[in-house]
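Entry for the shared binder. Reason: the reviewer on the internal report wants the predicted structure included alongside the sequence.
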Amino acid sequence: MTSHVRSSTCSRRPSRPWPATVWRPPRLVSNPVRPLPALPAELRAHLPAELRGLRRDGVRLMVVDRGAQSIRHSRFIELGSFLRAGDLLVVNRSRTMPAAVPAYRQDGELVQLRLCVRHVEEWHVLCVEPDPPHRNVALREGERLQVAGDETAVRGRRADLPLLWRIDPLREGL
């Protein structure tokens, strides 16, 4: 004799819907009055580790302790000593093209276009201030830019990556 038992826990819906919250990145420093200091020029890597005679695991590592609000400088090979069970490690494997070109906006403002993706019909670029700390610069759809003596038009933001801008193709050699 076979009986079918239906569990009420399997078909039960949650008593309240999931909260409709928007994910926000955690703040790096809990005290907004004390921002992180700028990284000194001598600590910035301007070339890949191999071109500086280092192994990849020998590069510098900046460790931020949010609880103590402190910064410590170490080496990447020591990364494991800073991690605990349950920590989240995010690895950025994105590649960039070694290309950045100056561009002038219609009002004469100088910006830097960092070339990211080349398509036959358009380029996808990141637009930043030309000087450190290289903050992102918002463009406008239809805006005209002067690049190496030629003019290009901004087509709009990339839908899936809104920091990237779609622009008309640049001439060969750029």
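Summary line for the report: Strands lie at 60-65, 70-75, 100-104, 110-118, 123-128, 144-147, 150-157, 164-167.
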